[in-house]
Amino acid sequence: MASSQLRTLGVLHHILGGLSLAGAVVFGIILVFGFTQEAAEGFTDPVGKATIAVFGVLTIGSLIGGVLCIWSGLHLLRHTRPGLCTTVAALICLHVPLGTALGIATLVILQRLDTRALFDIAGARR
Asked: Fewest C-beta in 10 Å: which of 8, 18, 33, 118?
């Protein structure tokens, strides 16, 4: 049962990671558009510069979050690196609302004894 739940969580982590990467593309497009508009105006508008900074942070954050989520999903499928999986699960709780639900479910399942045993068995094989 724990193995199938980890497989499901791994797939859901991949889906959320893909959504985050898609969001990064959208934020990146908005960032490029805003940057070109501000460059045409000589970067004189302080609100425009702040908006560029915000979308820059959103783009980078979405990229990092998406990659971490996919990486964690791979380790959930392989039953390796429980610390990484736990850390990423805690971090994706900030990704409201989908990440919160997935993060909490992942944290709950990772704390169960049968799940820990799967990670221990996989660690002993390496």
From this structure: 33
Q: Is residue 46 one of the residues assigned to a domain?
A: yes
Query: Total domain count for the chain?
Result: 1
pTM of the model: 0.91
Is 78 in contact with 84 (CB distance < 8 Å)? no
Separation between Cα atoms, residue 74 and residue 121, nearest integer Å = 17
Q: Does any domain span residue 111? A: yes
pLDDT, tens only, 21-61: 999 999 999 999 999 999 999 999 999 999 999 999 999 99
Decide if 7 is inside a domain: yes
Question: Can you give the residue range of the structural domain that contains 36?
Answer: 2-119
